[in-house]
Amino acid sequence: MYGRKRKMKTIVTLAVVFLVLIVACGGAIAATTFYATTAVSAGDVVVWDPTADYGVKTTAVEGAQAVAGVADESVTAGNLCIIRQDGGRVAVNVVGTVTRGQWLITSATAGKAKGVDSPQAGIFARAVTAAGVPAPGQCYASIELGFDEYFTGSSGSGAPVGATYITQTHDAALSAEQALADLESGLLKNTTATGVLSIAAAGTDYSAPGHQHTEADITDLAHTQIDAENNEQPALASIGSINVNGEDLKFIGAGGDRVNLELGTTCGELSGGTRTISVNGAIGNDANPGTSAAPFATIQRAWDAVPAVVLEPIVIDIAAGTYPEALLFAGKTMGSAGASVTLQGALVNSDAGTATGATATTLSDTSKSWGTNAHQYKLLRITAGTGSGQLAWIASNTATSITIAGQWTTVPNATSAYSIDSLGTSVNGGAGNISIRLDEQRGVTLRFLQCTAAAQFVVLDNSSAASLIGLRAATTNVTSRAFEIKSLSVLKGTGDSAGSSEAIFADDVGNIGLILRQLAAGTLSRSYFRSCGSVGVQVTEGAIVNIYNSYTYANTNYGIFCNRNATLMTAGGAYASYINSETVGIRNTDASLGVSVSTQNYFGCGTAYSADASSTQT
Q1: 347, 422 in Cβ contact below 8 A?
Q2: In this predicted model, what pLDDT tens digit does every residue of 456-511 receive, in sequence order?
Q3: 3-state SS string over 315-347?
Q4: How many CA atoms lie within 13 A of 296 on its CB side?
Q5: How far apart are the first and last CA of the chain?
Q6: How far apart are CA 48 and CA 145, in angstroms?
Q7: CATH classification of 2-152, choosing from 2.40.50, 3.40.190, 3.30.70, 2.40.300?
Q8: What integer pLDDT is reported at residue 551 of this predicted model?
Q9: Which of 245, 371, 570, 600 is deepest in the core (most CB within 10 A)?
Q10: Any idea where the DUF1565 domain is (predicted)?
């Protein structure tokens, strides 16, 4: 024991002499002897060991914040070791790539430092050379212990220059501090020029409770908080609307303790969550607001009044008459799950009643005495009772019975109320023009419209989830087709509702009634294609289409023509189609596939099915 004490005393004496020599020689490195509790190599980074007096050790904790310095010599555990601490140039053991100017922190490898690019908690030195100088696995560094306190605040020296502490309660040890508890209660306000927090002043920064708003308050946006409990709704209602960044902000009523304001179009009228924009070519004016009392004159003006981002159901209600317009519907996005746009024409009622009986293809009313085919090609709608919501084109009628094009999905009965209607709204784009074109639109419904122009009626181009309900085209144009749906458009669903492709009628069309191309999925039901110059329905260019419950009659060549790698499905049984008086009922060609082309379809044709060698029919 005596020998060990003498040895330690000798080491301490030598260390003191060494330090005196350094100072005498003008060195700037502070070095002290400490007790190593782990083995230490020269250049290792050591941290304080709280388990021993003057104890230091290596660590594998990255970013440790209790760095004591860098070992100047190699010793085994339990021996004294000279540790360099502040200033000067010291060789430090490092791991990985270190570049000159990087900050050093402890790494996950015991005793080794690693370089980081920006100051952070745990830095103890800065590299003055890259790794490899003075030796592999080392770099020279300038030790600056305590520098990391500027980033941790652990010593109470405060935040970095320009930074601010926001605390819940006051802390005298922190500089540039703002304590929330020192502020009065109220709305917190930030002053941008200084970054200082304060409490907003009622009447200056916001409307004080009980303030009675005037029209001037709202128009110049001096106040934005509306107090519904202090009867401010009537004042707002009298204002009507104001303009904010080019959009109209309109008072639309109150509910409970809320005053409802809407940003977007103020055209039309809002009722029950649906906005209706009215069009009447006879009495309207495009300078009007589009209400039922003051309608627009043109359909295009009504479409243009729809916001670019639609957030609600919108119905464009078009009065009876002929509209000489070539319409382009584009530029709208459905911005919510419930958003939609429906363009709806007028129905002119011919008769109504309650059924006394029905079959899959008929409806009877023994109280009637209709003239033979007096209602041919009109729409028959079930308006109440069993089968409510269904519609179909009338193929023919007797005094008391109506035969429909296609079949009922739900057969009506004696509870079923019905209505017989003609289409009263006609869109005529003029010779050679498309009357209605949807270009990259989603969620748009066209309903109860007709066209007699010698050109295409409706073209859907890359417009998905579209609905065509109760549309009729009657044209002698021999160079085109009545309806064209293409480029990944999707028709889906059934029934007289959004998302269906039901009751399309092409009558006496010069060439093709309906052409479907490049559809990823399509469903067509209860539709009628009669006396088309070439084909009732053409499915082409890879389209995948399910046609059921429909009627093709007396089309010159084919009832349904499937070509160019298309896939056609037709249902049988209760939903079979009626294909009659064509040369060929269904024709498959050009590597097309007829899947489940049911023999339960009714064929009154010269040839029911025809397929070339490249096509398949099952």
Answers
A1: yes
A2: 888 887 777 677 888 888 766 555 677 877 754 555 433 333 334 456 777 777 77
A3: EEEECCEEECCCEEECCCEECCCCCEEEEECCE
A4: 23
A5: 104
A6: 12
A7: 2.40.300
A8: 74
A9: 570
A10: 283-326
